[in-house]
Amino acid sequence: MGDLAVISLGGSIIVPDEVDTSFLSQFNTALRSYLVENKSRKVILVCGGGAPARLYQQALQTLCPEVDAEELDWLGIRATHINGQLIKAMFADLCPDNLVINPTGHISFKGQVLVAAGWKPGFSTDTDAVLLAERFGGKLVVNLSNIAKVYTGDPKKDPDAKPLDAITWAEFRQMVGETWTPGKNTPFDPVASQRAERLRMQVICADGRNIPNLMDILNGRKYVGTLIGSKSV
User: How far apart are CA 47 and CA 57, in angstroms?
Assistant: First the structure.
């Protein structure tokens, strides 16, 4: 995958309920080791909202049942900023740039790590990850969440849902639809999927808590996950 790794770090693994300091400590150690091995390597980390986003969005919906989607999205975006600032501080020595909250604005990317978070309503941080990959020449986004693979359906609702090793963009987009709604729970957001397909990018969806598996992905080895944008198998 070259010297640039673009990782969409799901809020579900940063803050599943509380900040998962055990996971983040392991992630920090492993990623530093990967970067120390080769000083030309760079990593873009795009942070999701996790539990804080859900809690505030649910609270607002309780307080204002008629609230519009844009207000809900802004709450989710602010949650990503808190998570992003935490991750940026964790990699402070490798990440001299400020937290990126506009992937189209001025970004110098002086260090080995760049940390980004939500930008504006209408899509999730998955789209920000695709925009940053496009800007800095990445052709692969590693999408880390709390699921190991994309399934043919929701395994919680469909007992016949099967895990997939690979799926085409056309097949994946048929599954997730065309539109984004705040808090929507899909393996990769529909707006990001449309742009990634147009750019002929690939996305690997994997369980971010499995650190050795992440290292296998980054080092181009065999991994457990779903490759989106390949021929279906």
Answer: 17
